[in-house]
Design a protein that fits this description.
heterodimer, A: 372 residues, mainly alpha, Cytochrome Bc1 Complex, Chain C, two-stranded antiparallel sheet, B: 428 residues, 23 helices, 0% strand, elongated
Chain lengths: 372, 428
């Protein structure tokens, strides 16, 4: 529509404001892309909604996070009190903080389900390897958000759980202690760690997420929605992304909003007691649920295995698992060729079952401890 | 070492020059080894002589260089019993009870001598002992009373701070009870033998023995240790007041102070007992079976009315504080943040504690003043709980409205989806 030169400028000057805006933002191109985008209809279509749900929950986190920033103070002396103020004094502060905390957990849960569905439907096979890799990296970023955000209220549980968590990288030979020191901003978890985690949570991770999420979404648009290999030959029907799929997506988002509001009203996220760095660690220290399986696994490891420190082996094991997760599309050659790869499915099922069992074990009270 | 030898040589010389009296211990010397005594005494099967030799190895005096001969005299360098036990070499055998305080006092009452072992050690024990009921009776010739060795032991003497020592705070009561629990011995002295049984029911015993609070009183805390004697009627409140300072001051400022003195009543213990001091309750002020005031103040008298007024005030504050606590706890359990109100309410607990202390002024107005302050705090906290409850209700009502709006939105979306689906041409 628009073109350079005097004629083009004259034509543009005659446009209505709405048409002018559409012309400037290239709306027709976007509308064309949206009109072209289709979502296959088959018995696994429901899993396609998980990606949109994860994106929606991420946006909820961004919105509530920005509102919390208006009152939160990232220092060891003020962090706890500022969150207390948000919860008790700021109008609807309790709602925003509870939605942010509950939303973070739902977000991680949905991202994990999204990845599991993509894995079992073999959507990572060619030509969508990079979509998977960017998604797997986004999962790690989500976990990073969870880990860094956990400390920010500066309560006892978070403080000691972060102490344990930041001690894990220190097990790595060579760079381990340095890595732990960089994470903590010193030799121990202090106010410096809080400032650092705050910076990571509100600046570094959002910047990386924006980049990775952009890549991920562009790749999803470019490559389209994957159809499972078992259904590919049947050439399933499709629905328009706009408006058919988007409207259904919105139903899911509305349900998520209702769920978050219900959780915030009936189970406001606890604040606990202010962290006392010089007190001894209270009983029952544990991280967020999504780190529990790793936490429990490290607890079971003996001090040494074949002369190598148990914790180091544990860290290396999880590092290897993460690398395998990222590189699945390149390692699963059968899936790339469109053939079934049952061994990968079995491996994933064992990993999921193991993580579930370890999580349950971590949630059980230790032997001999009677609940008051 | 040279200085130590010089000091003890001087002491020894002084002891020789002293007029005839109780035996004096020989100071430690590198030239005098205990080995001779211990070697023989350990080898002997006589149960009277071998145990002391065994015990002495762990004795604080042995560790400081003292030997058997330091107290018993004699010559430990010879293996000949006659020579070793030769009175001409200072052998004095087992000291009699009447001689023990002075024997121990030879060093323990000598500041110059003790300075070489523990400069901060007291040297007034002997002087104190002589003022004690034990010391006075001993002076009268009664050898059944306690002397140094009765409590500290004779040969396996341990530092007082050693948990194994019979005079360590957690063991003192049992040590005293060895004699004071002996009904026959106590009957001879016209003393009760159930003191330990009573003490073991007290709050002090519970704090010391069950909670491990070493600052909690045991026998010597009130009676003194070396100067052990029962507190006189007039000094009871002073003795209790060494720990319970506020109560003691309030009691002295109360109308009871003079009245008790006139009536010869022993202050604190009149209401709280002496050995079986149980945890005081608010019911002490009541007219019921646990009431203490009513034991002296008859019903309808001013004293009984004052007690009743204080009792009612304290109960009112306790009731209001408990109600506020329960209300805030319910809010906290419902997920509401009431930490600040709970913290503020702790000041009502402080007021309750102070009101209970104010009772010792025996002036209802003082209690009433404190209670009024506490009631204001408790009522404010309770109001905060009510406000939190309203906020909780508001949230839940707001949730219902929100869910209704969300439900409507979902219904509209579903209607739109169905409408779109209806308009589509049938698929292949």
């Amino acid at each position: 529509m628009s073109s350079g030169g005097p004629e083009g400028r004259a034509a543009a000057a005659r446009l209505s404001p709405a048409a002018w805006l559409r012309d400037r933002i290239g709306w027709d191109g976007i509308a064309h892309l949206a009109a072209k985008k289709e979502v296959p209809i088959h018995r696994y279509t429901i899993f396609y909604y998980l990606g949109g749900m994860a994106l929606f929950l991420f946006l909820v986190q961004v919105a509530t996070g920005i509102l919390l920033l208006l009152y939160y103070r990232p220092s060891a002396t003020e962090a706890f009190e500022s969150v207390q103020y948000i919860m008790a004094e700021v109008p609807f502060g309790w709602l925003i903080r509870s939605i942010h905390s509950w939303g973070a957990n739902l977000f991680v849960g949905v991202v994990v389900l999204h990845m599991a569905s993509v894995f079992f439907l073999k959507a990572y096979r060619a030509p969508r390897e990079m979509t998977w890799i960017s998604g797997a990296l986004l999962l790690f970023i989500a976990l990073g958000f969870g880990f860094s955000g956990y400390l920010l209220p500066w309560n006892t549980l978070a403080f000691f759980a972060t102490k344990v968590g930041t001690d894990v990288p220190a097990q790595l030979p060579g760079i381990g202690p340095l890595l732990s020191r960089i994470l903590r901003g010193g030799s121990d978890v202090t106010g410096a760690t809080l400032s650092r985690f705050y910076g990571i949570h509100v600046a570094i991770l959002p910047a990386i997420t924006t980049l990775l999420l952009g890549v991920h979404l562009v790749l999803v648009q470019q490559k389209g929605m994957s159809v499972p290999p078992s259904l590919e030959r049947k050439k399933p029907r499709a629905m328009k992304f706009v408006p058919d799929f988007l409207l259904r997506d919105m139903v899911g988002w509305m349900i998520a909003v209702g769920l978050l509001a219900g959780l915030a009203a009936f189970l406001p996220w606890e604040l606990g007691q202010k962290a006392e760095p010089f007190s001894s660690a209270p009983a029952g220290i544990r991280p967020e649920w999504y780190f529990l399986s790793m936490f429990q696994f490290l607890k079971y490891l003996p001090a040494e295995i074949a002369g190598i420190p148990g914790e180091l082996l544990g860290v290396l094991f999880f590092g290897a698992l993460a690398a395998v997760l990222v590189l699945v599309p390149l390692l699963d050659r059968k899936a790339s060729l469109g053939r079934p790869s049952p061994w990968w499915n079995r491996l994933a099922l064992v990993a999921i079952a193991g993580a579930l069992v370890l999580t349950v074990l971590a949630l059980l009270p230790p032997p001999g401890q009677v609940k008051p | 070492m040279t200085r130590r030898l010089a000091v003890f040589a001087a002491l020894f010389a002084g002891a020789l020059a002293a007029p005839a009296g109780p035996p004096t211990p020989t100071p430690p010397s590198t030239a005098v080894a205990a080995i001779g005594c211990v070697d023989c005494h350990l080898a002997l099967a006589d149960a009277r002589v071998s145990p002391p030799a065994k015990l002495f190895a762990d004795d604080i005096h042995a560790r400081s260089g003292f030997t058997c001969a330091s107290c018993h005299g004699g010559d430990p360098r010879t293996e000949d019993q006659e020579l070793a036990h030769d009175p001409r070499k200072g052998f004095r055998g087992k000291p009699s009870p009447k001689d023990i305080p002075a024997l121990c006092g030879t060093c323990h009452a000598d500041a110059a001598a003790m300075k070489h072992f523990n400069p901060s050690e007291r040297v007034d024990q002997l002087a104190e002992y002589r003022t004690s009921s034990h010391g006075k009776a001993l002076l009268r010739g009664d050898e059944s009373v306690a002397t140094c060795a009765s409590c500290h032991g004779a040969h396996g003497i341990l530092p007082v701070k050693d948990v194994r020592s019979p005079v360590y705070p957690t063991r003192i009561a049992q040590t005293c009870n060895r004699c004071h629990g002996d009904a026959t011995l106590m009957a001879a002295h016209k003393l009760p033998s159930d003191v330990y049984a009573k003490y073991s029911k007290s709050v002090h015993f519970e704090a010391l023995m069950k909670k491990g609070d070493l600052s909690s009183p045991t026998c010597n805390s009130c009676h003194g240790n070396h100067g052990a004697a029962p507190p006189q009627v007039g000094s009871v409140s002073n003795v209790c007041g060494t720990c319970h300072t506020v109560f003691a001051e309030q009691f002295k400022a109360s109308p009871h102070w003079e009245a008790f003195a006139e009536m010869g009543l022993p202050g604190c213990v009149t209401c709280h007992e002496n050995h079986d001091i149980v945890h005081p309750t608010d019911a002490f002020l009541s007219a019921g079976k646990d009431g203490k005031c009513v034991t002296c103040h008859e019903a309808a008298t001013e004293g009984a009315r004052s007690a009743a007024a204080m009792y009612e005030d304290i109960l009112a504050l306790k009731k209001e504080t408990d109600a506020a606590k329960a209300a805030l706890r319910r809010e906290a359990e419902a997920g509401m943040l009431v930490a600040r109100a709970q913290f503020d309410l702790s000041r009502a607990d402080e007021a309750l504690t102070k009101a209970r202390a104010d009772v010792h002024l025996f002036q209802p107005y003082a209690v009433q003043q404190t209670v009024a302050g506490g009631l204001t705090i408790a009522r404010t906290a309770r109001a905060e709980a009510v406000r939190s409850g309203r906020e909780r209700d508001f949230r839940r009502k707001g949730l219902i409205v929100s869910l209704a709006l969300i439900g409507l939105s979902i219904a509209a979306l579903v209607a739109k989806i169905r409408d779109l689906d209806r308009r589509k041409p049938p698929g292949p």
